[in-house]
Specification:
By secondary structure, the chain is α+β, with helices and mostly antiparallel strands. The chain is 46% helix and 15% strand. The protein has 19 helices and 13 strands. The strands form 2 sheets. Strands 1, 2, 3, 4, 5, 6 and 7 form a 7-stranded mixed β-sheet that branches. Helix 9 crosses helix 12, helix 10 runs parallel beside helix 11 and helix 15 packs across helix 19. It is globular, with a radius of gyration of 25 Å. 43% of the residues are buried.
């Protein structure tokens, strides 16, 4: 494998791997250099995000423009030609024999996107892996350790030869991940397992110097997206456990009201994950209560537009319970249940691939429950309420996502409002990107819209259904479950990978 450029190595050493962090350092160096050489124009030079990404990935050919090169030399103290050449071994920040794979692995992890940062120590301490949320998640950080690994077919073996550092890492009660690094190919392959699971595996085979993992544990866009969302939810809900238990009595009071929209300031101690869970749980109960006696399924509209928002369907236990309750209630109806999303093209283009995969998996979960999903790309409907529409009677409005309140619920009977909801649902059905007579055809069309390789995802879900998500990471919060994920793996893995 070619060595990374010196620029990439220095970014990791100095923890400037975020574009925003790098820009602050670059602009300060530009101002200092401008004063030193009395050239005010230098202080106005900036680095576009695209250029930084190319430099950081090693895709840059040649050296930057002369003025930019001067500032880079001032910033790093290294000639610009050397910055964009392969780094000498002496510049590797992780040179200890115990963790010689840490550099290449950490560079690959940070390539996943702006939501991942990995800090590598220079001693026997484990590294720190930070996952950053966007809007619906707060972000979290946990320990990470790298070990050499070798894949053979469907099995990956990670070297867990006993050392005091590894023993301390696996014994710790804190959240941590062990990552095996196989560098025998041009691009290193990474295999991930929760430290608690690694500890169990090691205990079942005492004295062995390796643990065996299914190769499905490979860290790619699918597993990264699942870890990114599940671990953030888990840490947030664990921190909110006592506060959420205390708020349960308030839900019964609010459920008796026809409408409510409590301010987030009423529960300032809750994390974003805790607030999202509480709002989601209340909205589900509000809808179920107000659909009593209805024999034909209503038409549903949901407000999630990104993978970060939709991940709750895959992780919250009450979400899968809610879908099952609706499916059971309306399974004998003359018409199938339907649910609409509005996902504009602009949102798709701004989302990383792993987030788009989360969105596709969440919609797959609904399709496997017998719910026909429509996805409308028209941004005109982006701010539509979440609702369950009983035509010509009422709409049960429930907003638990993208709202200033913890939740905003109501029961609407005014005809103009009902007409607006009906027209939105009609537009979604008429212009859905998910066209076709069966779930496979519709989901394949959605994968194309979201720019996800269909065959790759089907094959990966087949691999994961054999081991289950819990073999990679087990949620610690009682409000979370991997049950829905395993159902999606089985469902998606049963679909045909080829046209």
């Amino acid at each position: 494998m070619p060595r990374p450029t010196l620029f990439r190595v220095l970014l990791m050493e100095r923890r400037w791997d975020r574009w925003s962090t790098f820009c602050l350092r670059f602009e300060q160096a530009a101002r200092d250099l401008a004063k030193e050489v009395n050239a005010p124009r230098l202080a106005t030079i900036t680095v576009p995000r695209r250029s930084f990404d190319q430099w950081a990935k090693g895709d840059w050919q040649g050296v930057p423009r002369p003025d930019t090169a001067l500032i880079l030399e001032r910033l790093f103290g290294v000639p610009s030609e050397a910055l964009f050449s392969p780094a000498p071994e002496t510049f590797h920040p992780q040179a200890s024999p115990r963790d010689r794979d840490g550099l290449s692995a950490s560079l690959k992890i940070t390539d996943k996107g702006s939501t991942s940062r990995l800090f590598m120590p220079s001693d026997e301490l484990p590294g720190s892996w930070e996952m950053v949320g966007r809007q619906a998640l707060d972000g979290t950080a946990f320990a990470v350790a790298f070990r050499p690994a070798a894949r053979s077919g469907s099995i990956a073996q990670i070297d867990v030869t006993s050392t005091s550092a590894l023993d301390r890492f696996l014994r710790s009660a804190r959240r941590g991940f062990l990552i095996g690094v196989d560098e025998r190919e041009t691009t290193p392959q990474l295999f991930v397992i929760d430290a608690a699971n690694a500890r169990r595996a090691r205990a079942t085979a005492p004295g062995r110097s390796t643990i065996e993992l299914p190769a499905a544990h490979m860290l790619d866009d699918l597993t990264y997206g699942l870890l990114w969302s599940l671990v953030q939810f888990d840490d947030g809900l664990l921190g909110d456990d006592s506060a959420l238990a205390q708020e349960q009595h308030a839900l019964d009071t609010y459920l008796a009201l026809p409408r409510s929209a409590p301010s987030r300031m009423a529960m300032p101690d809750l994390s974003t994950a805790g607030t999202q869970w509480l709002g989601s749980s209340f909205c589900a109960q509000h809808i179920i209560r107000r659909l009593g006696g209805l024999t034909e399924p209503p038409v549903f509209w949901t407000r999630e537009q990104t993978g970060e928002q939709a991940a709750a369907w895959l992780c919250f236990q009450h979400k899968i319970d809610y879908l099952r309750a609706l499916s059971s209630r309306y399974s004998e109806g003359a018409a199938p249940m339907s649910r609409a999303f509005c996902i504009p093209e602009s949102g798709v283009s701004r989302s990383d691939r792993y987030e788009r995969i989360l969105l596709l998996l969440a919609i797959s979960l609904m399709e496997l429950q017998g719910i026909r999903v429509d996805v409308l790309p028209d941004p005109e409907y982006s701010e539509m309420d979440g609702f369950a529409l009983i035509p010509e009677q009422r709409a049960v409005v429930a907003n638990g996502t993208r709202t200033e309140a913890i939740w905003a619920v109501d029961t609407v009977t005014e005809r103009p409002a009902l007409r607006g909801y009906r027209e939105a649902a009609g537009e979604a059905h008429a212009h859905s990107v998910m066209r076709g007579p069966d779930p496979q055809t519709r989901l394949r069309a959605l994968a194309g819209y979201l720019e996800i390789d269909w065959t790759w995802l089907v094959v990966r879900c087949r691999e994961l259904r054999e081991c289950g998500m819990a073999s990679i990471v087990r949620p610690r919060s009682r409000h979370l479950s991997v049950e829905a994920l395993d159902e999606v793996f089985h469902f998606f893995g049963s679909l045909a990978p080829d046209r």
